[in-house]
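Quick one, T. Sequence first:
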Amino acid sequence: MKNSSMNMRFFIHTLGCKVNQYESQAIREILVGAGFKECLSKETADLYIVNTCTVTDKADRESRHWIGTFHKTNPKSKIVVTGCSAEQDADNISFLPGVAYIIKNADKARIADILNGIIGSKLLPLSITDFKGHTKAFVKIQDGCENRCSYCKVPLVRGALSSRPIDDIVKEVRALSDKGFKEIVLTGICLGAWGKDIVPGDVVRASGLKEPSIVDVLKAIDGVGGDFRVRLSSIEPLNVTDELLEYMAGNVRICRHLHIPLQSGDDEILRKMNRPYRSSQYKAIVERAISRIKDLAVTTDIMIGFPGESNHNFKNTIDLVKEILPARTHIFTFSKRPGTDAWDMVQSEDHAALKRRFYELQTASFGASYLYRSRFLGRKLDVLVETRRDKLSGWLCGYSDNYIRVQFQGDDSFMKRLVPVKIDDVSLIRTLGVC
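Structure tokens:
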């Protein structure tokens, strides 16, 4: 397939996390730079790139679904499968109809050379200059995970910690700011662990050096000119340090928002999950963060149905949610992943009980969100307006720095701008404003 890129039309479909979305943008820029042409419609593509996710069984099924859909759409096309499902399930994926290439995460930067049959090319780090189709731009600052949660397959497919150099991060942020992006979201597989592989902990302890941290990244970005704000994506509880909170509290550019995964509010389940904290520690971290940063929004992830979770264990999770009152909660159900410690654990098959738990937790999370958002009635928040209107109301919508989704009436000229909006009405599921 050497020198085949001329006029070849490609279409990218991305599943999963912000890191995958970032890497799809990098792939897009690599292919366009090599002479490929991106399709606006999947029906006209010669080449499909499926950037897969494997965090749940559902994600694996969705990856296979899209591979099949693209093959049916254009049976003569070639399908490239990359991303996390391709890391450990390449043999099975390779037999799916239409799959011509399987590209591991580490080789994503070489995608154009692989498609053109070029062997032995130099592997360069992924980078971006734009973020097509997004109001916010994601910047990947690290890869790999230091945790070994018993339910999670991600460390198996993403590997060891790898921190991106600060100079590269700053250069990319500057380019995205120059493109007019008003919000930069720093993302990674284990975001708060940035820097731990640069100077190992034993070296820090022996030498007395300061351990590099994500605060060093934030300080460097603060030197970039431009009118934009910075948001941290998901950060593990033990990475929410006093240093980070102090810096966030003193810098108006950093969004007043921390997404801190909880997973369970029960200590027995946390131990089985191999999470490195207990419920009282998590509560103390949240309380410390809220006390340090005025109007901070804490959002979280909670898993239901982990093997062995009893009604008593689940009640402890509900009770903790009612104590910490997260501004938003993402609820998901345990999914057995091959290769993880939880693979052999006995899982409850009582789907009716799981459904009841889901709705009970959802009710508690809606109530917590309502209480948080109600504090801002009559106050103005700077909202970054999305380029798509709310599907139901047709109103403009966007997010404040403390992650409140606000809807308000206005014309399209507000899109992609930071607009001061007065919060006028709050319900369990909506926040309405007036510009």
